[in-house]
Amino acid sequence: MGEYRYAIVELPPSPYAHDLQEVLAFVFDIGVNLAGCTGEQVAQAFMASGLAEEFEKQNPVYVAGKSSYDLLRIMLPLLPCDEVPAPELRYDRTPDFWAGWALAQYQMTTGCSYRSIFATATYDEIRSMYWPLHEAPESKFVAIFDEMRTERAKATNLRTLREAAGLSQSQLAKASGVGVRSIQLYEQRQKDINKAQGIALYRLSRALRCTMEQLLERWPQLAQLNDSKKLSEKKREQLFEPICQAAVAYGIGQADCGEIDQLNILNATFLAMSRAVQKLEENFSLHPDILLVDGNRDPKIMQPTQTVIKGDANSAAIAAASVLAKVTRDHQLLQLDALYPQYGFAKHKGYPTKLHYERIEQFGVCPQHRLSFLKKILNRG
Prior knowledge:
Layout lengths: L16 H17 L5 H10 L2 H6 L3 H4 L4 H8 L19 H16 L3 H7 L2 H6 L1 H4 L4 H15 L4 H8 L4 H8 L3 H8 L10 H11 L24 H14 L10 H7 L1 H20 L6 E4 L10 E4 L2 H4 L1 H24 L5 H4 L5 H10 L11 H6 L1
Parallel strand pairs: 1-2
């Protein structure tokens, strides 16, 4: 498979550029949020109606002479809704508005057709880049999407690993127990391997003698994902929403200070893990196929479980979980800081720093302090 190559030629700015971006942004915004269509349905209707080609030519009849509502009426026979909603002023700039704006920007910058753009990524993938790219220059989206197109023009990780192992698709299917048709669809990117069932990834990784993460395709918006301890607070905050968007499901479990004092830190951690699994079932009606655990201790929550030494550095799934957990905890510490400002929780985030110890000695403990950890200080009195 080859790479996409094109030249960007500096041309005078189009007099219709802003109109084009705004009208397409509102087509997606109104189509999704008022007409009740999915973004993918709007995208397919936009292309099938011939409007995409008119926008590529920057035909003023369509990009400047018609409103977003006019364009949706042209697309209506291709949409699942019965009518286009009545016009109304739209002040909110939704993620769907941003997606339409970014799509128009990319097409005008590169000259790529909309069909080529949507052959690279689904509408939902593009929309998920809203966090945090809606605050970045438009050129940032162009650069990241360029990288995605180049990456996806290459063979998938699954195909590369399969060929390196000297296996045909049929042989891999027999060795792994994963259907040959699923393997074909994953390699053609017609099925997203990042959303494959955990047990399928586990079986493929065993057959190919690789890690499950090596099978996954990279999400550009998660390119800087790493162990949460190695990321700045700002970067963790920026990654939180993209992780939630990219994840098939996620759950956050907790154990309070009383449970830690009663059970010890290790068993309380296992309790929090089991609650996180319960959250998957409660919020997403999903039971995981396999549990990846950072470290070398099996919490005995479910089978199969795979422990991963230094998992937050070696597993993308564990790294993503560590970011969600850290950001959630930091937010809770900010709330505690508002309740107990004398302890400086906003500064030390509850960690055993010199400042934290000094404040405990000065003001005593609050209900949220873990007494078993503070025995030395408490015994001084």
